[in-house]
Design goal:
With 205 residues, the protein is of the alpha+beta class. The protein has three domains: 1-42, no CATH class; 43-139, Arc Repressor Mutant, subunit A (Orthogonal Bundle); 147-205, Ferric-uptake regulator, C-terminal dimerisarion domain (Dna Ligase, domain 1, 2-Layer Sandwich). 50% of the residues lie in helices and 12% in strands. A three-stranded antiparallel beta sheet has the order 1-3-2. Strands 5-4-6 form a three-stranded mixed beta sheet, with no helix packed on it. A hairpin with a 5-residue loop joins strand 2 and strand 3.
Length: 205
């Protein structure tokens, strides 16, 4: 047991040493061929997520620079929270709480100003799901100017995303009939999620 604990501690130490040295971590599916015994193997998702984070931050920095804005450390902290929680539709207060964990000196006013800036640059969307609070989500590159849709449960408040564009035919008819050029749309569908429906059905038995 002691030998196993020492091996685990040594593995962590080696991994941290690699990070500190700036060499980074190596992903390897065949650990026994290239990596020292006991060195932890990090899954492909670890590196894919890190690469995505770095790419988004770089893109945002470049976009802000086009109008002489900088991605300050505080703005970057807020952006990282948005990236890490991209599927959670956080409010400004929730973002503030998460940012405070990594940057205690950041104030709520800074979070609000940054969210407003990111919204102006179309880095994020602000959405109202009917509860009186704005929530924020990153603009996904694949959306190409059209937002995805949301299913909102009236009982538990769960929000599910629908990535398919369900309004293409309607947009086409509106353009043909009214000569209206559509640039964007939002669709919010209210009802009850599968889990709440199943719980309700069980109560009725």
């Amino acid at each position: 047991m002691v030998e196993m604990a020492n091996t685990d501690l040594m593995s962590v130490f080696v991994a941290l040493s690699i990070i500190a040295s700036g060499r980074g971590l190596v992903y390897n599916e065949h650990r026994e061929n290239l990596l020292p015994a006991g060195l932890p193997v990090f899954p492909r998702q670890f590196f894919a997520g890190a690469k995505t984070m770095k790419k988004v931050i770089s893109d945002v920095e470049e976009k802000l620079r086009t109008k002489d804005y900088k991605l300050t450390s505080r703005r970057e902290n807020i952006l990282q929270v948005l990236i890490e929680n991209k599927d959670k539709h956080l409010s400004a207060e929730e973002i503030y709480y998460l940012v405070k964990k990594r940057a205690p000196d950041v104030g709520l006013a800074t979070v609000y100003r940054t969210l407003e800036l990111f919204t102006d640059f179309e880095i994020i969307h602000s959405i109202d799901f009917g509860d009186g609070r704005k929530r924020y989500e990153l603009v996904q590159a694949e959306e190409e100017g059209h937002r995805h849709h949301h299913l909102i449960c009236l009982r538990c408040g769960e929000i599910q995303e629908v990535t398919e564009d369900l309004l293409e035919d309607l947009e086409r008819k509106v353009t043909q009939t009214y000569g209206f050029s559509i640039t964007d749309h939002q669709l919010k569908i209210f009802g009850y999620c599968r889990s709440c429906r199943e719980k309700n059905e069980l109560r009725m038995i």
